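Form 7-S
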Amino acid sequence: MDQGGRGARNAPRRIEWGGGGARPAGETGTRAGIPAGSGLGGGHRLGPYRRGDERRAMETDFQRKLAEQLTAFAAVGILAAALIIHLPHDQKMDHSMLYVILAALSILVFAHHLILLYPSRQGKILARVPPFFLGLAAYYALACAAVFFSDKLSSPLYYTLLPGPVIAGAFFELWTALLSTSMLAGLYLAVSLSSRPFTAQDLQPLAFNVVYLYLACFLSNRLALELWRLEQSRREMAGLGDFIRRLEKAKSEYVSMVAHEIRTPLTSIQGFSEMAASPDTPPEKRKEYYRIILTESERLSRLVTNLLNLSRIEAGLELNREPVDVPELVLGEMEFFRSQTDVHRLEYKGSRDIPTVFADPERLRQVLQNLLSNAIKYSPGGGRVEVETGREGRYVTISVRDEGIGIPAEELPRIFEKFSRVERDEATGISGTGLGLAIVKHLVELHGGKITAQSEPGRGSTFTVYLPIRGGESR
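Output:
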């Protein structure tokens, strides 16, 4: 139908069109970006309206890469610690205990890597924060134990503590990471000052070491944020390139469809004009050719008019809004279409006492004309065409029902696309531009409303327009 559409196989199927596109009635489409934050646990802002599953996949992929890098960093730190304890130094060390601690640290780092590498069923790595956080606490305890068994405050293994704040800063929100680092700083202070009286000389190295822990946490957090933004920008640029390519393809397809739609009537006009101009053509045939030429010219004129209307709407048509009495407007259009058909019964159903809408009456007439024209056109055998007005919540509704050929289920979600037509044997010979419902959809959405389609092949179609009530006022 200039419906272009779809219906259900054995039972009517309803498709709803609003600002978010086509979807089965009752379903909602949600769009969201990653909440703003500084650590990856809460996520960083992903940009305008990425879908949730795409957002999770992107976040998970980035965290896996980061986990691999940080695991390598921690592993290098542990290997460096193993070398440091064998270098000549004055500190007292319990080497056997340090070997056990470094082995435990290695196992823990590997376990951390597994936690980060394999996400939860929902695809979120940090849904496993509790074991991850507990593992980090165990890392702190083991690293502090290494400091304890290598001369405490003067320990050369102090640097085994740094991977902890770095990992916390990269994978947690800033305040959570700082809280985690505070736990490590507390353990470090307790270990460094144990079994030894605190002196003024200890203050400076102790303070610097604690500051380094917090600094490592903060810088790691900021670095992770910047890396995330770079990854986000890279992906969005790649997505923009894909979008531009799709746009170019859509433009080419659109031009091709317009050319095809224009070429068809032009070919008919040209061919029948040549035959009508032939001196051998009988007068009766010439009259028939003239009638065909006139029909094709009208078809071409409608196509150009619809293209111009659609172009103006998509470019940002301004509505001349005023209070509109919907039943009165509907009855006026029905009266006109009654004069255009002898085989259809146009019936009005619904209360006249419904709220007014604040709308552009000319554009609403255009909506009704397209819907009524389709209902009549796609009911070639005649029958009843019913128009019903009513109220549903904060909307005034206009439903147009016919008893025509209906729309196949597989075509229903595409009925509001440009140049979409019903592909059925029953629709052969029914002329149309395939733009009527595209115009209807745009005009309804321009008013802040929505449109639904319900159809069953062989039993007709129902299109329902929802228009917002003017401030909820009653007539």
